[in-house]
Amino acid sequence: MDVKDGFARSISNSSPTHYVVKIQSFSLLTKNSIERYESGEFEAGGYKWKLVLYPSGNKKKNVKDYVSLYLALDEASSLQPGWEIYVNFRLFLHDQNKDNYLVVQDAPGKEMRFHKLKVEWGFDQFISLKEFNDGSKGYMVDDICAFGAEVFVCKERSIGKGESLMMVKDTTTYKHVWEVTNFPKLDSECCESKPFNAGNYTWKIKLYPKGKDVGLGNYLSLYLALADPTTLPQGSKIYAQIVLRILDQKQGKHHFGKANYWFSTSSFENGAAKFIVLSNFTSQNLGYLVKDNCTVEAEVTILGMVGTLP
């Protein structure tokens, strides 16, 4: 066995245990723009697999002058969340002159870990095209060749739950305007705007006329909330920048607050308990409340999302 660059090459007189791919007119693959070929599925160790062949090298990895060959886990989407499969595998190339096989594998004893985020392992430089096309080697005879695989599952385990955070590169700001009428006659603890959409989520503005929590009695409290937090998948969170504003209808000196918050099923309402002093809000000189009406605005910018790993 020859171990070089982290993987081993050896010769075997036994044919591959699990699968063989025989290719006729191999040269026509590249000529017909087939840069990647996936075999049919085969079963080994209770899982389904495929061989993935790049006849002129894996261009995505800038491989040239080599055949690239990989083992891929098929139907990885059916795996349970957090499930991992540790595998020893060997990939084969038939020597038709000697009727034996070149075997390429990772260093002996090394187990490769397959899971939903890594479904493919193998060799970018499985064999050089120069060696592969050398008729004296026996790998390509009359434009015919054969590859194979043996797959042995060593162990399986679950790593538990996980999450995926995705930050938004090109953000969009959504704006909603709410006209609140007959403010002095609002007798409920909390008033809500109509639901509105922002970034694939539904929101509403919540106004507490007599304040909330530490603002109770002396302040007007203003919040942004998810309209129906029960629709948010378990474990999901939304990171958003929000601007809440009460318009000054006389001088244009609007009163606003700006902050970033995480929204989730357990924290679906964020804002300011002490948004504005009630005496300032109701003052006829400041222009926030005119003829018993006020205008509230919300701007929402989604900055990131967290979801559970599939």
Explain what this protein looks like in three dimensions:
The protein is mainly beta and about 300 residues long. The chain is about 5% helix and about 50% strand. The chain is built from three helices and 22 strands. Strands 1, 2, 3, 8, 9, 10 and 12 form a seven-stranded antiparallel sheet that branches.
List keywords for this structure.
310 residues, five-stranded antiparallel β-sheet, MATH domain-containing protein, mainly beta, MATH/TRAF_dom, 3 helices, seven-stranded antiparallel β-sheet
Report the helical percentage: under 10%
- Give the overall silhouette: rod-shaped
Mean pLDDT: 92
Tell me the radius of gyration: 32 Å
Find the structural class using helix and strand composition. Answer: mainly beta
- Cα separation of the termini: 40 Å
What does the main sheet amount to? 7 strands, antiparallel
Order of helices and strands: EEEHEEEEEEEEHEEEEEEEEEEHE
Oligomeric form:
single chain
Unreliable residue runs: none
Q: Report the sheet-strand fraction.
A: over 45%
How many strand elements?
22
The helix count comes to 3
Protein name: MATH domain-containing protein
Domain MATH: 16-151, 173-300
